[in-house]
Amino acid sequence: MKITAKFVHANIVAKDWKVLATFYEQTFGCVRIPPERALSGKWLEDATGVPDAALRGVHLRLPGYGETGPTLEIFQYQQQPEKAPTAIHCPGLTHIAFAVDDVAAAREIVLNAGGGEVGKLTTAEIPGAGQITFVYLTDPEGNILELQQWHRNQELF
Fold it and tell me: What is the spatial distance between Cα 62 and Cα 128, in angstroms, rounded to a whole number?
């Protein structure tokens, strides 16, 4: 049996949800989807397994998919442990990617908005897939981003 599924959202737990949401809005053109969330109660504790769970945050519509597209959910828990360092080669989910029309220019925008560097801007030929220009960076809280541009028969994305 196969599950019928549709991608809905990805979540980032932030140190400061307002600052991180603003970064994604201003840098990538994500759009805030009301209402802002202020969630707590036994139901949230039961669902998350976090004692006395309480969080605040927002959903941001990701660019390129219209009014019904997937969102980036940015939440901040009232009590949360320190984040372990993230690395591109650690098991588990490691990054989110954005297709852009100019990787070098987008890289500078991310860095100027408080992001950080992970690796070098690179162009490579991927056998059977085409040429890609990409770079790994971080958002202001250290979450890894990939900016990419595929070059296939003059198509941008």
Answer: 28
The mean pLDDT value of the chain amounts to 92
**φ, ψ dihedrals at 68, nearest 5°:** -110, 15
pLDDT in tens, 46-82: 999 999 999 999 999 999 999 999 999 999 999 888 8
Domain 95-151 matching CATH 3.10.180.10: the answer reads yes
Given a cut of 80, whether residue 123 has pLDDT beyond it is yes
3-state DSSP assignment of residue 106: helix
- Does the N-terminal peptide bond of residue 34 adopt cis geometry, omega within 30 degrees of 0? no
In whole angstroms, what separates CA 84 from the centre of its chain? 17
Q: What is the band of 155 on the pLDDT scale with cuts at 50, 70, 90?
A: low
Q: Where in the chain is the domain with CATH 3.10.180.10?
A: 95-151
Task: Estimate to the nearest angstrom the gap between the alpha carbon of 110 and the chain centroid.
Answer: 13
Residue 105, φ and ψ in degrees, nearest 5: -65, -40
